[in-house]
Amino acid sequence: MPNKKSHSKIACMVAALALAGPTAALPAADFGSLQKTIKCLGASAYNGPYLAPIQWPKWTTGLNGKFMHISDIHIDELYKEGTDPAGTMCHRPSATNAALNVAGKYGTLSSICDTPQVMLDATFDWIKQNTADVDFILYTGDSARHDRDKTVPRQHSEVLNEHKIVVDKVISAFDTSKTKFIPTFGNNDELDYNKMAPVTDPIIANLTQIWAPYKLGLDENQDWLNGGYFAYEVKPGLVVLNLNSMLLFASNVLTKDCVVDGSAGAGMLTWLRNQLSQLRSAGKKAYVMQHIPPLDHSGKKLYYPTCHTDYTNILGSFSDVILGSFYGHTNKDYISYVYTNNTSSPQDGPFFISTVTDTVPSIDFDNTCILHVSSQGPSIIGENNPAIRVYSYDTSRFAFGGLVKWTQYWSDLVRDNTEDKVTYELEYTTQQAYGLWNLSPLSWTLVLQDWAKNSTSYRDYLKYRFVQNPNPVLKG
Ligand SMILES: *[C@@H]1O[C@H](CO)[C@@H](O)[C@H](O)[C@H]1NC(C)=O
Ligand SMILES: *[C@@H]1O[C@H](CO)[C@@H](O)[C@H](O)[C@H]1NC(C)=O
Ligand SMILES: *[C@@H]1O[C@H](CO)[C@@H](O)[C@H](O)[C@H]1NC(C)=O
Ligand SMILES: *[C@@H]1O[C@H](CO)[C@@H](O)[C@H](O)[C@H]1NC(C)=O
Predict the structure, then answer these.
(1) The domain containing residue 388 runs over which residues?
(2) Whose CA is nearest to atom 14 of ligand 2?
(3) Signal peptide position in this chain (predicted)?
(4) Which of 5, 63, 381, 400 is at a distance of 20 to 30 A from 134, taking alpha carbons?
């Protein structure tokens, strides 16, 4: 429904913007930029949770206002230091050319190798010591190793065991009855690579058992048991909608495009719309998560065409309810934004989605309202440097669940191997690096206006895209 709030609300918001305070060097000081966003203030995305970018008094006690996002662990039980990455995926040494045997103890940057157990152990040791105070954790999947080594094809039992290894690490670090851990599966997490049946794939029953220590009630959740997706109210008023991206993913040959009558992807997106309508009526907010994002780092679409359009329309038309969307899969750090060119009725669409790539963004800000910005989290696997994200979210009554910033921690894998120890450290925060006072569509719009001028903050975005890997692998 169009959200035609009075001008006094807009005036109040502009006043709040002016008072936003000294968090960082704000591009908002440029009133020309602000003016270009005023036409969008009628869009519901800019109201409600993000009405004022100031910290209200705490509403709920017992919350620290932080949650963690981790992704793509890809544990490999066969990984061996000193083996040949390119020829054997870090499983065996080359007998003929010792110079090829460069696999590092903690992983091999820019290779096609997976993650050794010692890296997973070191990562969870760090998590235990440094992020014990998060309120909950989102895990966007891919626990199992890739099935790339033809000499040792992946067995079903191995896939299940790799899921268990991850569960063991999580429950060693967190009391999952207090700190909720919300997992999903990636495209490598099925019994067979990239293959998930549209209804009740066998991996679902297996994961219902393996994930039981997370205490999410999955054994009684019909959405999960049938479709591999579920809703979980992670804090009162804040619901995680955890999708099965295999039902949208164009590389899953067992499913069909959402245009096909009765397709599982269309069924899930209908479920998603129904959930969001109910949350809207109840005045609750949502975070959406899934393994595969709609777009990769270069802007390439990863879903079936109609699934892509339908999902984009949901992000746009429910941008007042969906406060964040979180993805894994690409092992990269980038953002995508959902926008409309209908500035007279932004909430009516049409909606489009784009990724900020290595081309300076060119957006017609006079005729665009940005309604949602999704963030693509990096991975533990060493394709790029390993990284972990901690989000801050608003715990006040008026803006509950609104994303304030993310703080990214990374480990320099080459240095870890040289020093024979893993050191996670602060990489950047969105406040320091980009001057974002919060992660609302409005704040992002002001930053994108700055990036469109090829600013130093945009150059920083490009540096962080591959988690400071100087030689990234640029396949999809
Ligand atoms: C995995 O699920 C299949 C199909 O439901 C079942 O036959 C098998 O026993 C399960 N395996 C484990 C280890 O739970
Ligand atoms: C918005 O974009 C669509 C698709 O490109 C186009 O057909 C339409 O004319 C545009 N509307 C406005 C108001 O620019
Ligand atoms: C914008 O939305 C309004 C209200 O739904 C609609 O009448 C109008 O055609 C839309 N404009 C464009 C360019 O799509
Ligand atoms: C952006 O700035 C960088 C660094 O100053 C420069 O190398 C690059 O050519 C610029 N790109 C454009 C499109 O202006």
Answers:
(1) 7-79+114-464
(2) 341
(3) 1-25
(4) 381
Start-to-end Cα distance in the chain: 38
Protein residues whose CB sits closer than 6 Å to any atom of ligand 4: 360, 454
Nearest alpha-carbon partner for 41 in 353, 449, 441: 441
Structurally, the chain folds into a number of domains equal to 1
- Res. 4: pLDDT tops 60: no
pLDDT for residue 57 is more than 90:
no
**Is residue 161's pLDDT more than 60?**
yes
C-alpha distances out from residue 466 to 328, 451, 473, Å: 13, 18, 9
Q: How many CB atoms lie within 10 A of CB 155?
A: 11
* Residue 367 Cβ contacting ligand 2 at under 6 Å: yes
What atom in ligand 4 is closest to the CA of residue 454? 1
Which ligand has the nearest atom to the CA of 461? 4
Ligand 1 pocket (Cβ < 6 Å) reads: 160, 202, 205-206, 209
Residue 270 alpha carbon to ligand 3 centre in Å: 23
Measuring from atom 14 of ligand 1, which residue has the nearest CA? 206
Residue corresponding to tokens 């500035």: 343
Q: What is the pLDDT of residues 261-280, one digit of tens each?
A: 899 999 999 999 999 999 99
What's 339's domain CATH number?
3.60.21.10
Position 375: which residue type? S
Q: What does residue 202 show for φ and ψ, rounded to 5 degrees?
A: -55, -30
At 429, list the tokens. Answer: 């925060």
Q: Which ligand is nearest to the CA of 452?
A: 4
Coil, strand or helix at 158: helix
Predicted pLDDT at 33: 76
- Order of all β-strands in the sheet with 238-242: 230-235, 238-242, 285-289, 322-327, 369-376, 334-340, 351-355
pLDDT digits (tens, 9 = 90+) for 444-476: 999 999 999 999 999 999 999 999 999 998 764
Residue 383 confidence (pLDDT) above 60: yes
Distance of CA 280 to the CA centre of its chain: 22
Residue nearest to atom 5 of ligand 3 (CA): 348
88 in a domain, yes or no?
no
Strands (E), 184-235: 230-235
* Burial (0-12, 13-18, 19+ Cβ within 10 Å), 390: buried
Query: How long is the chain?
Result: 476
